[in-house]
Amino acid sequence: MTLRFHSLLLSTILLVLLNACGTTGPAPVDKPAVEPEQPTAPDPVKSQVFDLQQQMQRDPSERSLEEIIAMSRQMGGYREDVALEILRSLESVPSTQLTAMIDGQAYDPEFTEWLELALQARNVLIGQNTVTAAARKWADYHYGHVVTQAHFSELLSRYRKLFPVPARVAVLLPTEGGLAPAARAIRDGIMSAYLEQPDLATLRFYASGDSSESAMAAYLQAREDGATQIVGPLRSDSAGALASLDNPGVPILLLNEPTENNPADFVQKTFVNSLTLSQTEEAMAIAGSLLSHGQKRAILIVADSAWGARIETAFATRFVQGEGRISDITRFNPAVEEFNDMLTRLLKIDESKQRKTDLQSRLGIPLNFEPSRRDDFDFIFMAASPEEGRELKPLLRFHDAGDVTVYAMGRIFNGKMQRASDQDLNDIVFPVTTWQLQTAATDMPALESIRDGSYANLYALGQDAWRVLPWLPLMQNDPDLWFPGGIGELRMRADGHLARQPAWAQFSAGQPVPYQWPEAEQTTRP
User: Does 94 sit behind a cis peptide bond, omega within 30 degrees of 0 on the bond before it?
Assistant: First the structure.
């Protein structure tokens, strides 16, 4: 009984104590503190992908260099679509500028390699070089780059597809009249190149007639038929008519220079380019090459004709602008004067003979005297036909000028292999089409239009007219890019004309062989 009482008393005391400690009810249960919501930090990988995707939607030509660099850095592992966009974005940077950026090492090594890739891709594709060899070389010199050897080949294959031949090509050429034979050679050249590389294009020929009106009618018909590229016309006045159009609408590749009455004011027009075998351009190319090799003093021997006058003006203008000096000019006309008498005066041999006569008169005794020629020139420039050249060159040797190099217009070679008669042209240096040098007489196509080689240069012009079409947009962006054509190396001037740098040949044993400019001098493209 006593034990139960004490237990009850203890319980009562504990209850009183508990009530005394908590009179406001049961203590609340502690809850974890709720912190204010903080903005989530962006995931760096997701952020980069978002930026890169935004860039991929933009026009490549509008990207700044900084944006291109950012794309290359954000790519991470190899992505062909991004690599392709980098190449496209760099198309607006000319080749010489790319080279300067690479040599200047102004950028980090990884991006510098992208610059090298862009430059190499252009040269490989436009030069029709072997991609496999280029890929191997790329891998050897750029070990560790995200673009591997296999990637290089795949990337260039896809990049090449961005430069297709225009879908529907219309060629405007005369089928009758004085230019018809030349047009047939050009036509066959275009056809041969088309059959080698048709892509998905269609090719159609239109008769341009013998007037600018008929050429304009052919052009309008081609446009109506859905042409996406015009090649031609060939007549100079017809070329001028198309060049004068305010809005051609369809890209045009002229095959002749406009006449003086239709000046080439098409220089400001996006749609018009020209590819020709211009004689005046060839004369200027000769002058530029001579200047670049330190040949500063010239004597000119030119035909006394309208053609000779144009050649003389073009050569002399370019030569004098380059600080060359023309010591003398003679204009010959075989119907009026003997070549021997003309050269005697030109080389001042007649003055040398007169000095002998005067001296003998004063001394009153005969003298052993060998007339000497003038020596105030480094070379002779000749604008003559093959027949005229065969007479002039031996006479120059006879008058003690055989050791002086004679440079002539390409017309000095008629395209035919005539070793017996062309022996008299030995040592003459002249511009020639690359196709003529590379194609021996035995390998020349058996085409009537080529006329045993006489029109081989026009055949090569036709081939180039087709092969250069895919690259015109790239060449317009990059004026330093050279296309290795059959008529010579081509680059686009600011006026849209494809300037030609010819190959060089020299007559040896009566036939043209490749000419090597002296190695001691540095060659630059004029």
Answer: no
Which of the residue ranges 4-13, 327-336, 343-352 has the most confident prediction, judged by mean pLDDT? 327-336
DSSP 107: S
| pLDDT value, residue 299 | 97
- 421, two tokens: 């008669």
Nearest alpha carbon to residue 427 among 512, 315, 303: 512
Q: Largest Cα–Cα distance in the chain?
A: 184
Instruction: Name 375's Cβ contacts closer than 8 Å, sequence gap at least 6.
Output: none
What is the Cα–Cα distance from 378 to 235, expressed in whole angstroms? 38
Which uninterrupted H or E stretch holds 291?
A: helix 279-292
- 299 vs 271, higher pLDDT: 299
* Secondary structure (DSSP) of 141-205: HSTT-SS-HHHHHHHHHHHHTTSPPPSEEEEEE-SSSTTHHHHHHHHHHHHHHHHH--TT-EEEE
Give the residue-averaged pLDDT of 339-360.
75
The residue type at 348? K
Task: Say what the pTM is.
Answer: 0.84
Q: Cα(35)–Cα(14) distance, rounded to whole angstroms?
A: 40
Report residue 40 as tokens.
């989530």
Angle value at C-alpha 110, between 106 and 113, nearest 5 degrees? 80
Neighbouring C-beta atoms of residue 358, cutoff 10 Å: 10
Residues making up the chain, counted from first to last: 526
pLDDT of 2 above 50: no
Nearest to 307, CA basis, from 411, 433, 234, 212: 411
Say whether pLDDT at 356 is over 90.
no
Closest by CA position to 514, among listed 523, 500, 503: 503
β-strands 379-383, 406-408 pairing: parallel
What CA–CA distance (Å, rounded) separates 426 from 430? Answer: 11
Q: In the predicted model, is pLDDT for residue 274 greater than 70?
A: yes
Q: Using pLDDT thresholds of 50, 70 and 90, give the confidence band for residue 278.
A: very high
| Closest C-alpha among 188, 195, 159, 193 to residue 173 | 188
pLDDT value of position 312: 97
What 264-267 contacts at long range (C-beta under 8 Å, 24+ apart), as own/partner pairs, is 264/495, 264/497, 266/495, 266/496, 267/494, 267/495, 267/496
3-class SS of residue 259? coil
Residue pair 142/121 in contact (Cβ under 8 Å)? The answer is: no
- How far apart are the C-alpha atoms of 189 and 457, rounded to whole Å? 10
